[in-house]
Amino acid sequence: MAHHEKAAAPAKVDPIAALLVHAHDLSQRAKTEQQYTQIQRYCAAAIRRGADAEGRRFAQQLTTWTLNRRGQLRAANGQQEQALDDFRAALDYDPNNWRALHNRGVSLAQSGQFAEAFDDFSRVIQLNPQFAKAYSNRATLYVQANDLPAALKDYERARQIDERLVAAHVGLGRVCHLLGRWHEAFKYFDEAVRLDPANAEIVCSRGDLLADMGRYRDALADYAQTIQLDPEFAHAYRNGAWLLATCPDEKFRDAENAIAGARRALEFSYGDRHIALDTLAAALANAGQFEEAISTLQQAVEIAPQQTRPTYLARLQMYQQHQPFRTRPIDEVSQAVYEVIDP
Fold first, then answer.
1. Residues 156, 172: contact at Cβ < 8 Å?
2. Is residue 24 part of a domain?
3. Percentage of the chain surpassing pLDDT 90?
4. What is the pTM of this model?
5. Tens digit of pLDDT for each residue in 64-74?
6. Which of 15, 16, 153, 236 can bridge 226 by disulfide, Cβ–Cβ 3.0-4.6 Å?
């Protein structure tokens, strides 16, 4: 008589474990907002169905990671409010997640909530004292508050931790520029350009410094390089035009290109329009076109802040007397940029 063995019944699949496995597997390849949202849903379902202590802990850790990554993606896509919501939610699951805390600080700083951002960056430094970007970003807030010694200390600490952190070199360059420590500033900007040669903003900042140092040829070369890197970089057109129009050394003045650069700068929405109009007026006066210079500067006076008008009115009087304006480019710190965390 044939003997037949009874087939083994398939093992019962634990639905909670299956959810966590799906969540983990998806986390290994997730790249889109929808995928990160699906991971969050798997984890939430596992917790809702009664995951044990170990499973709940894993689900919460993965949820924190997922919310932080989705927040980074949303921030990169310009969805700042949604990104901030994600970072806050991530910290609800794990208040000591220094990555989410740092990213929340960046979002807060970018939205002008500087005090809250400062607290986040300081807390990150407590949790991870070797994270260079937290020092660099806190230093940027110190610059905003005009506490330059504290900014220098944080930027220098960031540079010591990570010698290749471009933001630290740029920050040190800008603060030293403001303090009149120009040779130190040049060293930092030069290193930043070496580390990131395609960054138009850094090259332009070095150009501004070189102009203040009286190295006009090098400054104009940096402005030209900036425009080559980014043909719509208005700051370079504006400050380059100002130097070509008002340089105290006449061999660097170029009436035609000064006017062309100033008009190009006006095509963009960068910065305050009254400054661009003032630059064009100076270029026109340098070319001997005083009537047009007067009418252009009058437009600047009409829209300029009250504290700026006396300076413009003094220049206006010069143009009315057919005298061009001569000076160095105005020292200016570029808009603050906060370093996001690496994936």
1. yes
2. no
3. 90
4. 0.85
5. 999 999 999 99
6. 236
